[in-house]
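hi! just following up on the protien thing from before. the input was this:
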Amino acid sequence: MRAWSRNALFACTSQIFMPAVLPAGFAKKLGDAPSGIEQAEIPAAPKADFYPLSPTQVSLYFESQMDPDGLSYNMPGAFYLPKGTELSRLEQAFTQVVSEETLLRTGFVFGPAGLGQKVFSPTRFALNTLEAESFEQAKAQFVRPFQLEQPPLLRAAIWRDQAGRDVLFVDIHHIICDGISTPLLMKRVDQAYGMDILPDRGIQYKDYSWYLQQRGEDDAAQKYWADQLSAPPQPLELPTDRPRQKAFDYAGAKLHFTLGERQSTACERYCEQNGLSPYMLFSAAFGLVLSRLSGQSDFLIGTPVSGRTSPQLWQVLGAFIHTLPLRLRPEPQLGISAYLEQVRQSVLQMIEHQDCSLEALQKLYQQAGGRRERCIV
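and the predicted 3d structure came back as:
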């Protein structure tokens, strides 16, 4: 997604996570696709000194505290700025956005009722300058741990490269942001820089987290996942090239694989003809690969969903991203059409019932006999 206004500074993409709500045209193609939309109105939270954390934030907070000097939950990015960008005006744009978005002024502190979110008063946002000879040096200088009790959990800085181009570095902690929020944030900075009036978007993240606390767990989602996790499969055992460590240390690598235009077009055409999304097709293919490697035909894989189950949340900044277990059963007796239909239905139902916290999912999994030491996602 490029350039949102006449004075646009940034180019971002928001198509990172599978959407929580299927587009109307696509849902029609899928026939009996669920809407995925929660109809209950999310009200504004009453004014308070502390607000509850959402289940996603609770998980992110305690995982961050296990490695307070780590960078696993930093979300850094860099943007080339157009020639002639006024840096003082850009700094003022960040200040305006932080002032209007309470989540960007939120710290995570312990109060009388335990851990909570505290919204701090607006202050001037500092757009610092990086002195470095290379991009890697600038990145190493810029990206550092956040102190979750000290907002803003957002940083920005300018570095000028060897060619004289200004590069904007931005970093934000995952506890207040996800992959969909990042382009929303940059769009608002862009609008503020262009001196556009920032529209009132209604609720903010504190309203959402307060609403979740008042509502509790969704009964329909609980019932669905209790059924899905009944008689849980054995944990997936994949062959490794070295012994698996007992302690998870975030060490690893990435394997990038790209389909050519011809293959991509063929996949898209197949999906259109068979009422599938690309996510459904590739999840099914991934299941076949895992089955071939492990010899198992019933297993759970973790998959991200956006967590934005209401249209009210589509433009709200925050950590809505959620991980759910997708149960795949590539049984040998199934034909490919039957297997794809099984995956299609599983994905649609997963999206429809995503309002279930990770803590609740793990509890249901263990109650069904799942091994406590092995996470389901």
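The longest strand covers residues 154-160.
The chain has eleven helices and eight strands.
cheers
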